[in-house]
Design a protein that fits this description.
By secondary structure, this protein is of the alpha/beta class. 31% of the residues lie in helices and 21% in strands. Strands 1, 2, 3, 4, 5, 20, 21 and 22 form an eight-stranded mixed beta sheet that branches. It has an eight-stranded parallel beta sheet with strand order 6-13-14-15-16-17-18-19. The longest helix is centred in the middle third of the chain and has 17 residues.
C-alpha cells in the first residue's frame, strides 16, 4: 500500500515542509519513502497533501482505571453531595447485601452543600447496605464506608502504611479517609476484577486512545485488578482477539522488595520482553505523595502549611536495596517522586546503581520540584524523567502555596532538563491529566491554561519547543522500551505507526496547538481510527 501526496512532519530535518512524499507500507512496517508523485505499480491512497507524523506514545497512564471510569460508576461530573448520593443510589439499585460499591473521580472540595470533606460517617447517608469505596479525582485520596473500615482493621500489613496517610477524627480513630499508598493498599487487597471485567473496561477505553492518536502506552494498572497475572491475561487475550489497537508496557506496582522477589521468582519475563504488542514494563515505586495533600516530600516546609513538609515512604536504605534488586534482575524501575526531597532520594538510589541506570534506562516520574543541585546530579546520571505538562493547566497558580519562592523557577523545569541532555518524556497520567496529546503539547510549549493565563506563560524560560514536545511523545518513549531503532519515527524499517493531521504543527500559532485534530490513526500498518 502506498500513501501518496502527504507532507511529513517529525522532529528532525529529514523531510522538507514544502515537499510531498509517498509512504510505502508493507505489513506492519514502513518499507520505503519516495518523493511524490509515486509512479510505480502499487495501489495508491491519495493523502491530499495532508500532514503525516509519528503517532503518540504515552509513557505514563492508568489505562484500566480510565476504562473502568467509562464502564463503572463515574463521579467526575457530580457537583454536590446530594447529587453524588443520588447517582450512587440510582446506579446500584439491585445490590446484594455486602457487595462492593466502586466510584471514581469525585472532588468534594468543590461541593457547596457540605462544609467539610466526606468521611465514613457521611457515607452512612447512602441508602444501600454495602462496602463502599470512592476514589478522589486525582487518585491520591479515597473515602470508604464504616463496613469497609472493619475489614481494613483486620489487615496486619495495613499497619505498616504511614499513619500520615490515615486520617483520624478528634478521638484518634480513622474517619474513613485515606491518602497515597494507603489508597493503593486498599485497591490492591480488597478486590480483584476478573480478566473478563478488565477486558470489557479496556475495550471501552480503546476508541478514545485511537481518536487522539495514541498507539502505544505505558500503564500502571495492577491496583485495579489485584493480580499481575490477570492483568497480563486481559491484555494478551485482547491481542489474540485482534482487539488491541495499541502497544502496551505493563508496569508492576510494588509495595516492598518482597513484591519484587515474588514477581521475579514466579515470572521469567523482564522489562521489554513479552508478546509483539504486550511487554513487561517497570517496577513502579511510590516515594512520596502529592502536593495538594501536603504529602509530597519537600526539603522545605509548605509555605501555606509550615508544619508540613511531606513524607518519604521508604528509608534510603530500603530504596537502595529495591533499586539494586530490580537492576540485578534486569527490571527497570519507575519512581514516583513529586517533592524535591523525594527526587533527591531517587537520585541517590540511582547513583548507587549507576551502570544499571544507564543500561536499564531507569525513570523518575513527575520530578515537579527541583533545585540547582538536583539538576547537576541528574546531568551526571541522566535517568529518564516522565513529565505531565497538562497538570500546569490547573496547578500553575497553586505552585506558590507548595514551593518556596526561591524554588519556583525549578518547578516543572522542562527546558532546564533538556539543556543538560536529560531525557524527557511527555505523558498524561490518565485519567488525572489530559488524554489528548495536543493539549499536553500546547501546555508544554505555552505554559498557560487553555485561556492563555498567565500572559506570556508561567516560568516561560521553561517552555519547550514544538519539536522537543513531539520527541517527548514519540522517539523518547520508544527508548524506554529499548525500541528506538524500530519505533517512533517515519523511516523505512520502522513500525508503521502514524497519524494524519488537519494542520501542520509548525505552521500555526502556538496557542492553536490544542485545536489540532487527528484525522486518521494507523497502528502497525492498519488504520484504527478515521474521523
Amino acid at each position: 500500500m502506498i500513501l501518496d501526496n502527504v507532507r511529513i512532519y517529525q522532529p528532525d530535518p529529514t523531510y522538507k515542509n514544502e515537499q510531498t512524499y509517498a509512504v510505502k507500507v508493507e505489513g506492519e512496517k514502513i518499507e520505503a519513502i519516495y518523493e511524490s508523485p509515486y509512479e510505480g505499480e502499487e495501489d495508491v491512497i491519495d493523502g491530499r497533501g495532508r500532514v503525516l507524523c509519528p503517532s503518540f506514545n504515552d509513557s505514563h497512564m492508568h489505562l484500566l482505571r480510565y476504562g473502568l471510569l467509562k464502564k463503572e460508576l463515574d463521579l467526575t461530573q457530580v457537583t454536590s453531595w446530594e447529587e453524588m448520593k443520588a447517582v450512587i443510589e440510582n446506579h446500584y439499585d439491585e445490590l446484594q447485601q455486602y457487595d462492593w460499591i466502586f466510584g471514581k473521580g469525585f472532588n468534594d472540595g468543590n461541593f457547596d452543600d457540605i462544609d467539610h470533606l466526606l468521611t465514613a460517617e457521611d457515607l452512612n447517608e447512602i441508602q444501600v447496605n454495602a462496602y463502599m469505596y470512592f476514589m478522589h479525582q486525582d487518585g491520591h485520596e479515597c473515602v470508604i464506608s464504616e463496613q469497609a473500615m472493619e475489614l481494613l482493621k483486620e489487615e496486619e500489613d495495613f499497619k505498616k502504611e504511614p499513619d500520615e496517610f490515615k486520617e483520624k477524627d478528634e478521638h484518634g480513630n480513622w474517619n474513613g479517609r485515606f491518602k497515597d499508598t494507603a489508597v493503593h493498599y486498599i485497591k490492591h487487597h480488597f478486590w480483584g476484577r476478573s480478566a473478563e471485567d478488565a477486558k470489557e473496561a479496556l475495550k471501552k477505553a480503546m476508541p478514545h486512545l485511537s481518536q487522539h492518536g495514541l498507539t502505544s502506552v505505558h500503564t500502571d494498572d495492577i491496583n485495579f485488578i489485584g493480580s499481575y497475572e490477570r492483568l497480563w491475561q486481559a491484555y494478551t487475550e485482547l491481542e489474540q482477539e485482534e482487539a488491541l489497537p495499541i502497544d502496551v508496557q505493563l508496569h508492576h506496582y510494588v509495595f516492598n522488595i518482597e513484591d519484587m522477589k515474588s514477581y521475579c521468582k514466579e515470572n521469567r519475563l523482564r522489562t521489554g520482553q513479552g508478546t509483539p504488542k504486550v511487554r513487561v514494563g517497570s517496577f513502579k515505586i511510590f516515594l512520596d505523595g502529592t502536593q495538594r495533600l501536603y504529602t509530597a516530600a519537600m526539603r522545605n516546609p509548605y509555605p501555606v502549611e509550615p508544619s508540613a513538609d511531606g513524607r518519604l515512604i521508604y528509608t534510603q536504605e530500603q530504596l537502595d536495596e529495591m533499586v539494586k534488586y530490580a537492576s540485578d534482575n534486569d527490571m527497570q524501575v519507575a519512581m514516583h517522586a513529586i517533592g524535591d526531597r523525594a527526587v533527591e532520594q531517587a537520585i541517590t538510589a540511582l547513583e548507587k546503581s549507576k551502570e544499571a541506570t544507564k543500561r536499564l534506562r531507569h525513570r523518575i516520574i513527575h520530578a515537579q520540584t527541583l533545585a540547582p543541585d538536583l539538576i547537576a546530579r541528574l546531568r551526571e546520571l541522566k535517568p529518564y524523567i516522565e513529565t505531565q505538562p497538562s497538570f500546569l493547566l490547573d496547578e500553575w497558580s497553586e505552585k506558590g502555596k507548595w514551593t518556596p519562592e526561591s524554588l519556583l523557577p525549578y518547578c516543572d523545569a522542562y527546558q532546564s532538563l533538556l539543556k543538560e541532555h536529560i531525557p524527557l518524556t511527555l505523558s498524561s497520567d490518565l485519567p488525572i491529566g489530559a488524554l489528548n496529546p495536543f493539549t499536553t503539547i500546547f501546555t508544554a510549549v505555552n505554559r498557560t491554561d487553555l485561556n492563555g493565563n498567565p500572559e506570556g506563560g508561567w516560568m516561560p524560560q521553561e517552555k519547550l519547543s514544538i519539536k522537543d514536545s513531539f520527541l517527548g511523545f514519540t522517539k523518547t518513549p520508544a527508548e524506554l522500551e529499548y525500541r528506538e531503532e524500530e519505533k517512533g519515527k517515519i523511516e523505512p524499517g520502522y513500525q508503521a505507526d502514524f497519524l494524519i493531521l488537519d494542520k501542520h504543527p509548525e505552521e500555526i500559532k502556538t496557542e492553536k496547538l490544542k485545536d489540532i485534530k487527528v484525522l486518521e490513526t494507523w497502528h502497525r500498518g492498519k488504520c484504527v481510527y478515521r474521523k
